[in-house]
Design the sequence.
């Protein structure tokens, strides 16, 4: 039995590699560019090698096939796969496991008695129509993507005061001003998102949010518009460097 360590990263497309060595434990973001240039398969075990591949839909734990995996590693894999709203793909061979959490849901439960990445590549290459809202205290950017390109968008910048550390009446007055600014930002972002995305609602396959997680949580409490998308809203939060701008949509990993 081989003990397999696990490290994770937050990204749009994640390659989580488990292995006995530090090198085998490294992380690689899988982007559309990786797929287009054939780099994805370079990051995965060689296709056709002796091993095991397990594709699982959301919330289901993958199978390890004939491989004997220690309980700690098996529990960690089950934990990550069980929390994924897009499912997972597990590649297993002697001494190494590679767990991929894709950006879009795995649709079929199937196992292969070899290392077989073609269904994963097809999943990543498939043209998608998605929406994204990037939000921080300094502004927002909402976009509609068709086949990876932004075809419609709206960006707005807002000033929200930083937190005030002084006490007393000045503190309370500052808090009221800041709270008003936050509500105005949320209301504007919600209204613009509705205006931009309503024409595409039936076409949108998935919705992603990006930016500050706590700000997004507060925003979702005040903006009910996105509830209509149901399980099309993905739980992964996209990383956004600084306040969202129009170019932030172009730079968003996809």
Sequence:
């Amino acid at each position: 039995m081989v003990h397999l360590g696990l490290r994770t990263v937050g990204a749009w497309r994640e390659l989580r590699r488990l292995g006995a060595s530090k090198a085998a434990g490294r992380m690689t973001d899988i982007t559309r560019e990786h797929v287009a240039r054939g780099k994805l398969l370079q990051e995965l075990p060689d296709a056709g090698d002796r091993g095991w591949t397990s594709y699982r839909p959301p919330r289901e734990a993958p199978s390890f096939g004939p491989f004997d995996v220690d309980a700690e590693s098996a529990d960690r894999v089950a934990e990550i796969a069980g929390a994924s709203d897009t499912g997972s793909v597990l590649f297993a061979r002697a001494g190494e496991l590679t767990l991929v959490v894709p950006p879009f849901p795995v649709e079929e439960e199937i196992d292969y008695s070899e290392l077989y990445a073609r269904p994963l590549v097809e999943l990543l290459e498939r043209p998608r129509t998605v929406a994204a809202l990037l939000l921080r205290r300094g502004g927002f950017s909402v976009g509609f993507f068709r086949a990876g390109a932004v075809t419609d968008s709206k960006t707005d910048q807002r000033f929200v005061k930083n937190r005030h550390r002084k006490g007393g009446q000045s503190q309370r007055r500052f808090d009221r001003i800041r709270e008003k600014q936050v509500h105005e930002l949320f209301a504007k972002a919600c209204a613009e998102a509705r205006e931009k995305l309503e024409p595409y609602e039936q076409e949108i396959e998935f919705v992603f949010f990006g930016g500050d997680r706590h700000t997004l949580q507060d925003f979702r409490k005040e903006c009910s518009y996105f509830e209509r998308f149901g399980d099309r809203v993905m739980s992964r939060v996209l990383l956004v460097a600084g306040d969202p701008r129009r170019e932030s949509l172009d730079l968003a990993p996809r």
Observations:
- The two ends are 37 Å apart (CA to CA).
- Residues 13 and 30 are 5 Å apart (CA to CA).
